[in-house]
Amino acid sequence: MTHAPVISLLIDGRSPADPAQALASDDRGFQYGDGLFETARCRNGNVRLLDAHLQRLRAGCERLGIAFPDELRLRTEIAAVCGQAEEGVLKIILTRGRGGRGYRPMPGMTTTRIVALHPLPSIDTSTPITLRWCDMRLGRNPSLAGMKHLNRLEQVLAQREWNPSSIEEGSIEEGSIAEGLMLDTEGELVSGTMSNVFIVSDGLLITPDLRYCGVRGVMRDEVLRVAAEQGIAVSEEPLWPHDVDHAKEVFITNAVHGIRAVGALETIRWGMGPVTQRLSAIVNC
Amino acid sequence: MTHAPVISLLIDGRSPADPAQALASDDRGFQYGDGLFETARCRNGNVRLLDAHLQRLRAGCERLGIAFPDELRLRTEIAAVCGQAEEGVLKIILTRGRGGRGYRPMPGMTTTRIVALHPLPSIDTSTPITLRWCDMRLGRNPSLAGMKHLNRLEQVLAQREWNPSSIEEGSIEEGSIAEGLMLDTEGELVSGTMSNVFIVSDGLLITPDLRYCGVRGVMRDEVLRVAAEQGIAVSEEPLWPHDVDHAKEVFITNAVHGIRAVGALETIRWGMGPVTQRLSAIVNC
Protein backbone atom coordinates (compact mmCIF):
# COMPACT_ATOMS: atom_id res chain seq x y z
CA MET A 1 0.00 0.00 0.00
CA THR A 2 1.34 3.44 -0.89
CA HIS A 3 0.55 6.46 1.19
CA ALA A 4 0.19 9.95 -0.21
CA PRO A 5 3.67 11.42 -0.01
CA VAL A 6 4.21 14.48 2.10
CA ILE A 7 7.24 16.73 1.66
CA SER A 8 6.76 18.69 4.83
CA LEU A 9 4.20 18.60 7.64
CA LEU A 10 3.41 20.74 10.68
CA ILE A 11 0.71 19.78 13.16
CA ASP A 12 -0.06 22.61 15.55
CA GLY A 13 3.28 24.04 14.58
CA ARG A 14 5.34 20.95 15.28
CA SER A 15 6.82 18.46 12.87
CA PRO A 16 5.64 15.03 14.09
CA ALA A 17 8.35 12.45 14.72
CA ASP A 18 6.10 9.89 13.03
CA PRO A 19 3.32 11.17 10.71
CA ALA A 20 1.60 7.82 11.20
CA GLN A 21 1.15 8.68 14.87
CA ALA A 22 0.47 12.36 14.89
CA LEU A 23 -3.16 13.13 15.59
CA ALA A 24 -5.48 12.68 18.56
CA SER A 25 -8.15 10.04 18.01
CA ASP A 26 -10.72 12.36 19.61
CA ASP A 27 -9.99 15.15 17.15
CA ARG A 28 -13.33 16.32 15.81
CA GLY A 29 -11.98 16.39 12.28
CA PHE A 30 -11.68 12.64 12.55
CA GLN A 31 -14.81 11.99 14.60
CA TYR A 32 -17.26 14.15 12.63
CA GLY A 33 -15.48 15.86 9.73
CA ASP A 34 -15.83 18.96 11.92
CA GLY A 35 -13.42 21.24 10.08
CA LEU A 36 -12.32 22.86 6.84
CA PHE A 37 -9.45 22.62 4.36
CA GLU A 38 -7.67 24.48 1.59
CA THR A 39 -5.57 23.17 -1.26
CA ALA A 40 -3.27 25.70 -2.93
CA ARG A 41 -0.49 25.88 -5.49
CA CYS A 42 2.96 26.55 -4.10
CA ARG A 43 5.91 27.69 -6.20
CA ASN A 44 9.34 28.80 -5.01
CA GLY A 45 8.01 29.34 -1.52
CA ASN A 46 5.07 31.45 -2.69
CA VAL A 47 1.48 30.33 -2.36
CA ARG A 48 -0.71 31.41 -5.22
CA LEU A 49 -3.79 33.39 -4.09
CA LEU A 50 -2.86 32.82 -0.45
CA ASP A 51 -4.90 35.78 0.79
CA ALA A 52 -8.00 34.42 -0.93
CA HIS A 53 -7.42 30.95 0.53
CA LEU A 54 -7.02 32.34 4.05
CA GLN A 55 -10.05 34.57 3.59
CA ARG A 56 -12.21 31.60 2.57
CA LEU A 57 -10.87 29.59 5.50
CA ARG A 58 -11.67 32.39 7.91
CA ALA A 59 -15.17 32.81 6.46
CA GLY A 60 -15.76 29.05 6.78
CA CYS A 61 -14.60 29.08 10.39
CA GLU A 62 -17.02 31.90 11.10
CA ARG A 63 -19.92 29.98 9.57
CA LEU A 64 -19.06 26.82 11.53
CA GLY A 65 -18.20 28.63 14.77
CA ILE A 66 -14.61 27.38 14.73
CA ALA A 67 -11.99 29.69 16.24
CA PHE A 68 -9.72 30.95 13.45
CA PRO A 69 -6.12 30.60 14.60
CA ASP A 70 -3.69 33.46 14.92
CA GLU A 71 -3.14 34.46 11.28
CA LEU A 72 0.49 35.48 11.64
CA ARG A 73 1.34 32.13 13.19
CA LEU A 74 -0.54 30.28 10.46
CA ARG A 75 1.27 32.27 7.75
CA THR A 76 4.60 31.54 9.42
CA GLU A 77 3.81 27.82 9.37
CA ILE A 78 2.75 27.99 5.73
CA ALA A 79 5.98 29.77 4.81
CA ALA A 80 8.04 27.20 6.70
CA VAL A 81 6.33 24.28 4.97
CA CYS A 82 6.38 25.85 1.48
CA GLY A 83 10.03 26.73 1.64
CA GLN A 84 10.82 23.01 1.33
CA ALA A 85 10.30 22.62 -2.42
CA GLU A 86 10.30 24.53 -5.70
CA GLU A 87 6.86 23.23 -6.60
CA GLY A 88 4.17 21.68 -4.49
CA VAL A 89 0.58 21.49 -3.33
CA LEU A 90 -0.11 23.12 0.00
CA LYS A 91 -2.89 21.61 2.10
CA ILE A 92 -4.17 23.37 5.20
CA ILE A 93 -6.68 21.64 7.49
CA LEU A 94 -8.34 23.33 10.43
CA THR A 95 -10.58 21.35 12.78
CA ARG A 96 -12.65 22.47 15.77
CA GLY A 97 -10.23 20.64 18.05
CA ARG A 98 -10.50 17.71 20.43
CA GLY A 99 -13.31 16.23 22.46
CA GLY A 100 -16.68 17.69 23.33
CA ARG A 101 -19.84 15.91 24.43
CA GLY A 102 -20.65 13.86 21.40
CA TYR A 103 -21.62 16.14 18.53
CA ARG A 104 -21.82 19.11 20.87
CA PRO A 105 -18.70 21.29 20.85
CA MET A 106 -17.56 22.69 24.18
CA PRO A 107 -16.69 26.36 24.64
CA GLY A 108 -13.04 27.34 24.35
CA MET A 109 -11.86 24.51 22.14
CA THR A 110 -8.42 24.86 20.54
CA THR A 111 -8.48 24.65 16.74
CA THR A 112 -6.21 21.95 15.30
CA ARG A 113 -3.88 23.21 12.53
CA ILE A 114 -2.37 20.95 9.91
CA VAL A 115 -0.13 22.48 7.27
CA ALA A 116 1.33 20.06 4.72
CA LEU A 117 3.20 20.27 1.44
CA HIS A 118 2.68 17.51 -1.14
CA PRO A 119 4.40 16.99 -4.50
CA LEU A 120 2.77 18.69 -7.48
CA PRO A 121 1.18 16.09 -9.79
CA SER A 122 2.73 16.38 -13.25
CA ILE A 123 -0.15 17.30 -15.52
CA ASP A 124 -0.21 18.79 -19.00
CA THR A 125 -2.66 21.65 -18.53
CA SER A 126 -2.46 22.77 -22.17
CA THR A 127 -4.32 19.81 -23.69
CA PRO A 128 -8.13 19.62 -23.42
CA ILE A 129 -9.33 16.91 -21.06
CA THR A 130 -12.12 14.37 -21.12
CA LEU A 131 -14.94 14.52 -18.57
CA ARG A 132 -17.69 12.12 -17.59
CA TRP A 133 -21.03 12.51 -15.80
CA CYS A 134 -21.02 11.03 -12.30
CA ASP A 135 -23.96 8.97 -11.07
CA MET A 136 -23.32 10.11 -7.51
CA ARG A 137 -25.35 13.21 -6.65
CA LEU A 138 -24.66 16.04 -4.23
CA GLY A 139 -27.19 16.63 -1.43
CA ARG A 140 -28.57 20.14 -1.15
CA ASN A 141 -27.94 22.06 2.02
CA PRO A 142 -27.56 25.85 1.82
CA SER A 143 -26.13 25.84 5.38
CA LEU A 144 -23.04 24.03 4.12
CA ALA A 145 -22.94 25.30 0.52
CA GLY A 146 -19.78 27.00 -0.68
CA MET A 147 -17.50 25.85 2.14
CA LYS A 148 -14.57 23.49 1.67
CA HIS A 149 -15.49 21.48 4.76
CA LEU A 150 -14.26 18.03 5.69
CA ASN A 151 -17.52 16.16 4.90
CA ARG A 152 -16.44 14.81 1.51
CA LEU A 153 -17.93 11.34 1.21
CA GLU A 154 -19.96 12.38 -1.83
CA GLN A 155 -16.78 13.33 -3.70
CA VAL A 156 -15.01 10.15 -2.61
CA LEU A 157 -17.89 7.99 -3.84
CA ALA A 158 -18.07 9.95 -7.11
CA GLN A 159 -14.39 9.35 -7.82
CA ARG A 160 -14.82 5.64 -7.12
CA GLU A 161 -17.14 5.44 -10.13
CA TRP A 162 -14.36 5.39 -12.69
CA ASN A 163 -10.76 4.35 -12.97
CA PRO A 164 -8.49 6.75 -14.78
CA SER A 165 -6.98 4.54 -17.47
CA SER A 166 -3.58 6.04 -16.69
CA ILE A 167 -2.00 5.77 -13.27
CA GLU A 168 -1.05 9.44 -13.50
CA GLU A 169 -4.21 11.16 -12.43
CA GLY A 170 -5.48 13.62 -14.98
CA SER A 171 -3.00 12.71 -17.68
CA ILE A 172 -4.31 13.07 -21.21
CA GLU A 173 -3.86 9.65 -22.68
CA GLU A 174 -6.40 8.60 -25.25
CA GLY A 175 -9.53 7.58 -23.43
CA SER A 176 -8.48 8.60 -19.95
CA ILE A 177 -11.02 10.57 -17.94
CA ALA A 178 -9.62 13.45 -15.93
CA GLU A 179 -12.70 14.56 -14.01
CA GLY A 180 -16.37 13.83 -13.41
CA LEU A 181 -19.17 16.40 -13.40
CA MET A 182 -21.65 16.20 -10.54
CA LEU A 183 -25.34 17.11 -10.36
CA ASP A 184 -27.26 17.74 -7.19
CA THR A 185 -30.15 15.49 -6.15
CA GLU A 186 -32.54 17.64 -8.23
CA GLY A 187 -30.42 17.24 -11.35
CA GLU A 188 -28.85 20.71 -11.35
CA LEU A 189 -25.19 20.99 -12.39
CA VAL A 190 -22.91 21.84 -9.46
CA SER A 191 -19.24 21.19 -10.20
CA GLY A 192 -16.61 18.57 -10.85
CA THR A 193 -15.56 16.25 -8.03
CA MET A 194 -12.54 18.47 -7.36
CA SER A 195 -13.10 21.49 -9.57
CA ASN A 196 -15.59 24.17 -10.54
CA VAL A 197 -17.06 24.25 -14.02
CA PHE A 198 -17.62 27.11 -16.50
CA ILE A 199 -19.40 27.16 -19.84
CA VAL A 200 -19.44 29.74 -22.62
CA SER A 201 -22.89 30.15 -24.12
CA ASP A 202 -24.31 32.99 -26.24
CA GLY A 203 -21.16 34.99 -25.58
CA LEU A 204 -21.63 34.74 -21.82
CA LEU A 205 -19.26 32.99 -19.37
CA ILE A 206 -21.48 31.10 -16.92
CA THR A 207 -20.76 29.04 -13.81
CA PRO A 208 -23.26 27.41 -11.39
CA ASP A 209 -24.28 29.72 -8.55
CA LEU A 210 -23.72 27.06 -5.84
CA ARG A 211 -26.66 28.29 -3.76
CA TYR A 212 -27.52 24.74 -2.63
CA CYS A 213 -24.18 22.91 -2.55
CA GLY A 214 -20.67 22.76 -3.95
CA VAL A 215 -17.42 24.47 -3.06
CA ARG A 216 -16.88 28.14 -3.96
CA GLY A 217 -13.40 27.67 -5.38
CA VAL A 218 -10.71 30.26 -4.95
CA MET A 219 -9.78 29.77 -8.63
CA ARG A 220 -13.47 30.12 -9.57
CA ASP A 221 -13.50 33.55 -7.97
CA GLU A 222 -10.20 34.42 -9.65
CA VAL A 223 -11.53 33.44 -13.08
CA LEU A 224 -14.71 35.49 -12.53
CA ARG A 225 -12.56 38.46 -11.51
CA VAL A 226 -10.15 38.16 -14.46
CA ALA A 227 -12.99 37.64 -16.96
CA ALA A 228 -14.78 40.78 -15.76
CA GLU A 229 -11.50 42.67 -15.95
CA GLN A 230 -11.15 41.48 -19.56
CA GLY A 231 -14.59 42.75 -20.44
CA ILE A 232 -16.08 39.25 -20.72
CA ALA A 233 -19.70 39.12 -19.56
CA VAL A 234 -20.01 36.68 -16.62
CA SER A 235 -22.94 35.15 -14.81
CA GLU A 236 -23.42 32.88 -11.80
CA GLU A 237 -26.72 31.10 -12.30
CA PRO A 238 -28.41 27.69 -12.21
CA LEU A 239 -27.14 25.38 -14.95
CA TRP A 240 -28.42 22.00 -16.08
CA PRO A 241 -26.83 19.19 -18.09
CA HIS A 242 -28.40 20.40 -21.35
CA ASP A 243 -26.65 23.76 -20.86
CA VAL A 244 -23.34 21.91 -20.96
CA ASP A 245 -24.43 19.84 -23.96
CA HIS A 246 -25.17 23.02 -25.92
CA ALA A 247 -22.22 25.10 -24.70
CA LYS A 248 -19.71 26.61 -27.13
CA GLU A 249 -16.83 26.06 -24.68
CA VAL A 250 -16.42 24.24 -21.37
CA PHE A 251 -13.59 24.45 -18.87
CA ILE A 252 -12.94 23.47 -15.28
CA THR A 253 -10.91 25.25 -12.63
CA ASN A 254 -9.10 24.47 -9.43
CA ALA A 255 -6.49 26.15 -7.29
CA VAL A 256 -3.73 23.70 -8.19
CA HIS A 257 -4.06 23.52 -11.98
CA GLY A 258 -5.88 26.75 -12.83
CA ILE A 259 -8.03 26.48 -15.97
CA ARG A 260 -8.26 23.22 -17.91
CA ALA A 261 -10.07 23.20 -21.23
CA VAL A 262 -12.61 20.41 -21.74
CA GLY A 263 -12.31 18.57 -25.08
CA ALA A 264 -14.80 15.79 -24.56
CA LEU A 265 -17.77 14.79 -22.43
CA GLU A 266 -19.42 11.49 -23.26
CA THR A 267 -20.16 11.83 -27.04
CA ILE A 268 -19.67 15.61 -27.27
CA ARG A 269 -16.43 17.16 -28.55
CA TRP A 270 -15.12 20.71 -28.24
CA GLY A 271 -12.08 22.41 -29.68
CA MET A 272 -10.04 24.89 -27.67
CA GLY A 273 -12.31 27.95 -27.66
CA PRO A 274 -11.28 31.60 -27.71
CA VAL A 275 -12.60 32.53 -24.23
CA THR A 276 -10.91 29.52 -22.63
CA GLN A 277 -7.69 30.32 -24.47
CA ARG A 278 -7.74 33.96 -23.51
CA LEU A 279 -8.42 33.33 -19.83
CA SER A 280 -5.95 30.42 -19.60
CA ALA A 281 -3.19 32.64 -20.94
CA ILE A 282 -3.73 35.01 -18.03
CA VAL A 283 -4.65 32.59 -15.24
CA ASN A 284 -2.36 29.61 -15.94
CA CYS A 285 0.85 31.57 -15.67
CA MET B 1 -10.03 22.61 27.91
CA THR B 2 -11.39 19.18 28.78
CA HIS B 3 -11.15 16.28 26.39
CA ALA B 4 -13.70 13.51 26.15
CA PRO B 5 -12.51 10.88 28.59
CA VAL B 6 -11.66 7.48 27.29
CA ILE B 7 -11.48 4.42 29.53
CA SER B 8 -9.80 2.16 27.03
CA LEU B 9 -8.64 2.61 23.44
CA LEU B 10 -7.30 0.31 20.71
CA ILE B 11 -6.14 1.67 17.35
CA ASP B 12 -5.56 -1.12 14.85
CA GLY B 13 -5.35 -3.44 17.82
CA ARG B 14 -2.74 -1.49 19.74
CA SER B 15 -3.13 0.72 22.77
CA PRO B 16 -1.43 4.01 21.84
CA ALA B 17 1.25 5.26 24.23
CA ASP B 18 -0.24 8.76 23.83
CA PRO B 19 -3.85 9.05 22.57
CA ALA B 20 -3.02 12.64 21.58
CA GLN B 21 -0.55 11.25 19.04
CA ALA B 22 -2.16 8.16 17.74
CA LEU B 23 -3.52 8.63 14.22
CA ALA B 24 -1.99 9.27 10.82
CA SER B 25 -2.68 12.76 9.48
CA ASP B 26 -3.37 11.23 6.04
CA ASP B 27 -6.07 8.93 7.41
CA ARG B 28 -9.09 9.34 5.16
CA GLY B 29 -11.38 9.50 8.18
CA PHE B 30 -9.68 12.75 9.04
CA GLN B 31 -9.19 14.05 5.50
CA TYR B 32 -12.69 13.38 4.14
CA GLY B 33 -14.85 11.75 6.81
CA ASP B 34 -14.36 8.61 4.71
CA GLY B 35 -15.58 6.05 7.21
CA LEU B 36 -18.30 4.82 9.55
CA PHE B 37 -18.95 4.52 13.25
CA GLU B 38 -21.06 2.74 15.83
CA THR B 39 -21.97 3.75 19.37
CA ALA B 40 -23.20 0.97 21.64
CA ARG B 41 -24.09 0.32 25.26
CA CYS B 42 -21.65 -1.81 27.18
CA ARG B 43 -22.43 -3.49 30.51
CA ASN B 44 -20.31 -5.97 32.44
CA GLY B 45 -18.26 -6.69 29.36
CA ASN B 46 -21.30 -7.32 27.16
CA VAL B 47 -22.25 -5.07 24.27
CA ARG B 48 -25.97 -4.67 23.81
CA LEU B 49 -27.15 -5.62 20.29
CA LEU B 50 -23.55 -6.18 19.19
CA ASP B 51 -24.53 -8.39 16.26
CA ALA B 52 -26.84 -5.69 14.93
CA HIS B 53 -24.15 -3.03 15.32
CA LEU B 54 -21.60 -5.15 13.46
CA GLN B 55 -24.13 -6.00 10.77
CA ARG B 56 -24.89 -2.31 10.17
CA LEU B 57 -21.16 -1.54 10.10
CA ARG B 58 -20.58 -4.30 7.56
CA ALA B 59 -23.48 -3.12 5.40
CA GLY B 60 -22.15 0.44 5.51
CA CYS B 61 -18.68 -0.74 4.50
CA GLU B 62 -20.22 -2.57 1.55
CA ARG B 63 -22.08 0.54 0.42
CA LEU B 64 -18.96 2.71 0.69
CA GLY B 65 -16.59 0.10 -0.73
CA ILE B 66 -14.54 -0.05 2.48
CA ALA B 67 -12.95 -3.41 3.33
CA PHE B 68 -14.66 -4.81 6.43
CA PRO B 69 -11.95 -6.02 8.82
CA ASP B 70 -11.63 -9.58 10.06
CA GLU B 71 -14.71 -9.94 12.27
CA LEU B 72 -13.14 -12.26 14.84
CA ARG B 73 -10.28 -9.81 15.35
CA LEU B 74 -12.70 -6.91 15.68
CA ARG B 75 -14.80 -8.83 18.20
CA THR B 76 -11.67 -9.68 20.18
CA GLU B 77 -10.71 -6.00 20.32
CA ILE B 78 -14.25 -5.04 21.39
CA ALA B 79 -14.15 -7.65 24.17
CA ALA B 80 -10.75 -6.42 25.34
CA VAL B 81 -11.90 -2.80 25.47
CA CYS B 82 -15.28 -3.53 27.09
CA GLY B 83 -13.82 -5.70 29.80
CA GLN B 84 -12.37 -2.55 31.36
CA ALA B 85 -15.53 -1.22 33.05
CA GLU B 86 -18.91 -2.29 34.44
CA GLU B 87 -20.71 0.32 32.38
CA GLY B 88 -19.65 2.27 29.35
CA VAL B 89 -20.26 3.49 25.85
CA LEU B 90 -18.44 1.57 23.13
CA LYS B 91 -17.45 3.53 20.05
CA ILE B 92 -16.14 1.77 16.97
CA ILE B 93 -14.78 3.78 14.04
CA LEU B 94 -13.74 2.24 10.74
CA THR B 95 -12.12 4.38 8.04
CA ARG B 96 -11.04 3.51 4.51
CA GLY B 97 -7.41 3.83 5.62
CA ARG B 98 -4.54 6.12 4.70
CA GLY B 99 -3.63 8.10 1.62
CA GLY B 100 -4.97 7.78 -1.90
CA ARG B 101 -4.85 10.34 -4.70
CA GLY B 102 -6.96 13.10 -3.32
CA TYR B 103 -10.56 11.94 -3.01
CA ARG B 104 -9.81 8.83 -5.05
CA PRO B 105 -9.19 5.74 -2.94
CA MET B 106 -6.46 3.37 -4.10
CA PRO B 107 -7.02 -0.38 -4.38
CA GLY B 108 -5.96 -2.52 -1.45
CA MET B 109 -6.21 0.08 1.29
CA THR B 110 -6.09 -1.15 4.88
CA THR B 111 -9.15 -0.19 6.93
CA THR B 112 -8.31 1.76 10.11
CA ARG B 113 -9.96 0.32 13.26
CA ILE B 114 -10.62 2.37 16.37
CA VAL B 115 -12.30 0.70 19.32
CA ALA B 116 -12.84 2.88 22.38
CA LEU B 117 -14.75 2.69 25.65
CA HIS B 118 -16.08 5.93 27.16
CA PRO B 119 -17.87 6.47 30.50
CA LEU B 120 -21.66 6.09 30.45
CA PRO B 121 -23.32 9.51 30.94
CA SER B 122 -25.55 9.39 34.02
CA ILE B 123 -29.03 10.06 32.70
CA ASP B 124 -32.43 9.43 34.25
CA THR B 125 -34.18 7.61 31.42
CA SER B 126 -37.45 7.25 33.34
CA THR B 127 -38.47 10.92 33.25
CA PRO B 128 -39.90 12.41 30.05
CA ILE B 129 -37.56 14.83 28.31
CA THR B 130 -37.95 18.16 26.58
CA LEU B 131 -37.20 18.53 22.86
CA ARG B 132 -36.79 21.51 20.56
CA TRP B 133 -36.98 21.98 16.80
CA CYS B 134 -33.59 22.60 15.21
CA ASP B 135 -33.19 25.30 12.57
CA MET B 136 -30.39 23.31 10.93
CA ARG B 137 -31.72 21.05 8.19
CA LEU B 138 -30.46 17.73 6.86
CA GLY B 139 -29.53 17.54 3.17
CA ARG B 140 -31.20 14.78 1.16
CA ASN B 141 -29.02 12.16 -0.44
CA PRO B 142 -30.37 8.61 -0.77
CA SER B 143 -26.83 7.39 -1.53
CA LEU B 144 -25.79 8.18 2.03
CA ALA B 145 -29.15 7.70 3.80
CA GLY B 146 -29.31 5.25 6.69
CA MET B 147 -25.56 4.93 7.25
CA LYS B 148 -23.78 6.11 10.37
CA HIS B 149 -20.94 7.65 8.37
CA LEU B 150 -18.38 10.17 9.56
CA ASN B 151 -19.83 13.20 7.72
CA ARG B 152 -21.61 14.73 10.71
CA LEU B 153 -21.29 18.50 10.33
CA GLU B 154 -25.06 18.89 10.14
CA GLN B 155 -25.49 17.26 13.54
CA VAL B 156 -22.65 19.29 15.04
CA LEU B 157 -24.18 22.54 13.80
CA ALA B 158 -27.63 21.48 15.03
CA GLN B 159 -26.33 20.86 18.54
CA ARG B 160 -24.62 24.25 18.55
CA GLU B 161 -28.06 25.87 18.32
CA TRP B 162 -28.86 25.45 21.99
CA ASN B 163 -27.08 25.17 25.29
CA PRO B 164 -28.40 22.55 27.64
CA SER B 165 -29.15 24.60 30.74
CA SER B 166 -27.53 21.91 32.87
CA ILE B 167 -23.95 20.82 32.41
CA GLU B 168 -25.11 17.21 32.63
CA GLU B 169 -26.24 16.50 29.12
CA GLY B 170 -29.80 15.28 28.97
CA SER B 171 -30.57 15.86 32.63
CA ILE B 172 -34.17 16.75 33.35
CA GLU B 173 -33.90 20.03 35.16
CA GLU B 174 -36.71 22.48 34.59
CA GLY B 175 -36.16 24.07 31.21
CA SER B 176 -33.27 21.92 30.05
CA ILE B 177 -33.50 20.59 26.50
CA ALA B 178 -32.27 17.05 25.99
CA GLU B 179 -32.48 16.75 22.21
CA GLY B 180 -33.40 18.61 19.05
CA LEU B 181 -35.58 17.29 16.23
CA MET B 182 -34.30 17.77 12.70
CA LEU B 183 -36.15 18.24 9.42
CA ASP B 184 -34.66 17.72 5.99
CA THR B 185 -34.31 20.59 3.53
CA GLU B 186 -37.86 19.92 2.27
CA GLY B 187 -39.31 20.15 5.77
CA GLU B 188 -39.86 16.43 6.36
CA LEU B 189 -39.15 15.06 9.85
CA VAL B 190 -36.02 12.88 9.95
CA SER B 191 -34.74 12.29 13.48
CA GLY B 192 -33.13 13.86 16.51
CA THR B 193 -29.53 15.03 16.30
CA MET B 194 -28.41 11.78 17.95
CA SER B 195 -31.56 9.69 18.09
CA ASN B 196 -34.42 8.34 16.04
CA VAL B 197 -37.97 9.49 16.72
CA PHE B 198 -41.26 7.60 17.02
CA ILE B 199 -44.81 8.86 17.37
CA VAL B 200 -48.02 7.10 18.33
CA SER B 201 -50.94 8.25 16.24
CA ASP B 202 -54.35 6.61 15.67
CA GLY B 203 -53.11 3.51 17.47
CA LEU B 204 -50.16 3.17 15.10
CA LEU B 205 -46.47 3.41 16.06
CA ILE B 206 -44.78 5.44 13.31
CA THR B 207 -41.18 6.42 12.61
CA PRO B 208 -39.76 8.32 9.60
CA ASP B 209 -38.74 6.00 6.76
CA LEU B 210 -35.32 7.68 6.26
CA ARG B 211 -35.38 7.21 2.49
CA TYR B 212 -33.58 10.52 1.90
CA CYS B 213 -31.34 10.96 4.95
CA GLY B 214 -30.84 10.12 8.61
CA VAL B 215 -29.27 7.21 10.43
CA ARG B 216 -31.07 3.86 10.59
CA GLY B 217 -30.49 3.32 14.31
CA VAL B 218 -29.86 -0.12 15.74
CA MET B 219 -32.26 0.76 18.60
CA ARG B 220 -34.82 1.98 16.04
CA ASP B 221 -34.77 -1.48 14.45
CA GLU B 222 -34.96 -3.12 17.87
CA VAL B 223 -38.01 -1.06 18.86
CA LEU B 224 -39.72 -1.88 15.55
CA ARG B 225 -39.01 -5.57 16.17
CA VAL B 226 -40.21 -5.56 19.78
CA ALA B 227 -43.33 -3.57 18.92
CA ALA B 228 -44.29 -6.02 16.17
CA GLU B 229 -43.66 -8.90 18.57
CA GLN B 230 -45.99 -7.20 21.05
CA GLY B 231 -48.74 -6.93 18.47
CA ILE B 232 -48.38 -3.17 18.12
CA ALA B 233 -49.02 -1.98 14.56
CA VAL B 234 -45.90 -0.25 13.22
CA SER B 235 -45.19 1.84 10.15
CA GLU B 236 -42.14 3.49 8.57
CA GLU B 237 -43.39 6.40 6.52
CA PRO B 238 -42.86 10.09 5.77
CA LEU B 239 -43.70 12.29 8.76
CA TRP B 240 -43.97 16.05 9.02
CA PRO B 241 -43.88 18.44 11.98
CA HIS B 242 -47.69 18.57 12.22
CA ASP B 243 -47.70 14.78 12.69
CA VAL B 244 -45.63 15.29 15.83
CA ASP B 245 -47.82 18.17 16.98
CA HIS B 246 -50.89 15.93 16.80
CA ALA B 247 -49.31 12.73 18.12
CA LYS B 248 -50.69 10.97 21.18
CA GLU B 249 -47.20 9.91 22.31
CA VAL B 250 -43.66 10.76 21.23
CA PHE B 251 -40.42 9.05 22.13
CA ILE B 252 -36.83 8.99 20.91
CA THR B 253 -34.40 6.09 20.77
CA ASN B 254 -30.70 5.51 20.65
CA ALA B 255 -28.39 2.61 21.29
CA VAL B 256 -26.98 4.01 24.51
CA HIS B 257 -30.15 5.06 26.35
CA GLY B 258 -32.84 2.96 24.67
CA ILE B 259 -36.27 4.61 24.69
CA ARG B 260 -36.77 8.05 26.19
CA ALA B 261 -40.30 9.40 26.52
CA VAL B 262 -40.85 12.95 25.31
CA GLY B 263 -42.78 15.19 27.72
CA ALA B 264 -42.48 18.52 25.97
CA LEU B 265 -41.74 20.08 22.59
CA GLU B 266 -41.98 23.85 22.37
CA THR B 267 -45.50 24.55 23.73
CA ILE B 268 -46.84 20.98 23.50
CA ARG B 269 -46.97 18.67 26.53
CA TRP B 270 -47.40 14.89 26.71
CA GLY B 271 -47.82 12.55 29.65
CA MET B 272 -46.12 9.15 29.72
CA GLY B 273 -48.24 7.19 27.22
CA PRO B 274 -49.15 3.50 27.37
CA VAL B 275 -47.24 2.44 24.22
CA THR B 276 -44.08 4.24 25.33
CA GLN B 277 -44.41 2.73 28.80
CA ARG B 278 -44.97 -0.80 27.51
CA LEU B 279 -42.04 -0.70 25.06
CA SER B 280 -39.71 1.00 27.54
CA ALA B 281 -40.35 -1.74 30.08
CA ILE B 282 -39.06 -4.29 27.58
CA VAL B 283 -36.35 -2.31 25.80
CA ASN B 284 -34.80 -0.30 28.66
CA CYS B 285 -33.82 -3.30 30.72
Would you kindly provide a written description of the structure presented here, covering whatever features stand out?
The structure is a homodimer of 285-residue chains. Chain A has 285 residues and is α+β, with helices and mostly antiparallel strands. Chain A has 2 domains: 111 residues, 2-Layer Sandwich (D-amino Acid Aminotransferase, Chain A, domain 1), CATH 3.30.470; 155 residues, D-amino Acid Aminotransferase, subunit A, domain 2 (D-amino Acid Aminotransferase, Chain A, domain 2, Alpha-Beta Barrel). Chain A is 23% helix and 26% strand. In chain A, strands 6, 7, 8, 9, 10, 11, 12, 13 and 14 form a 9-stranded mixed beta sheet that branches. In chain A, β9 and β10 form a beta hairpin. Chain A is globular. Chain A starts with 7 loop residues before the first strand and ends with a helix. At the A-B interface, α1 and α4 of A face α1 and α4 of B.
List the helices and strands and how they pair.
The structure is a homodimer of 285-residue chains.
Chain A: E1 8-11, H1 28-32, E2 35-43, E3 46-47, H2 50-64, H3 71-82, E4 87-95, E5 112-118, E6 129-133, H4 153-159, E7 179-183, E8 189-192, E9 196-201, E10 204-207, H5 218-229, E11 234-236, H6 241-245, E12 249-254, E13 258-265, E14 268-269, H7 274-283
Parallel strand pairs in A: 6-7, 6-13, 10-11
Antiparallel strand pairs in A: 1-5, 2-3, 2-4, 4-5, 7-8, 9-10, 9-12, 12-13, 13-14
